[in-house]
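A quick aside before the break. I want you to see a complete sequence-to-structure record at least once, exactly as it would be stored in a machine-readable document. Don't worry about memorizing anything.
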Amino acid sequence: MENKVLRKLFLGFIQIHILHHAKEEPIYGSWMLEELHEHGYEISAGTLYPILHNMEKDQLLNREDVNINGKIRKYYRITDKGDSVLQEARTKAYELFKEIK
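That is the input. The structure line, written in tokens, reads:
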């Protein structure tokens, strides 16, 4: 039960991480997996890629397919809508942090 609750909670944090990094520079899945693992998130590719696809579908990210040595790599960048969501999430996260600190 605890794991399910934490997983749902961390999903939002993961999406904020994705938006943050996609604002800094284009990201791709395997790099994002490594970045999330560095922050202690236990997430698999089978979990991350649907998140990226849903964020694209929700118009938070734009995808560009780039041919890298004959292999297509999907790069994601933040959209204007994604940037607005990120700004609001940052404000809410900061308020929460101040309260629970």
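Two observations worth writing down. The two ends are 25 Å apart (CA to CA). The first strand starts at residue 61 and ends at 68. We'll return to this after the break.
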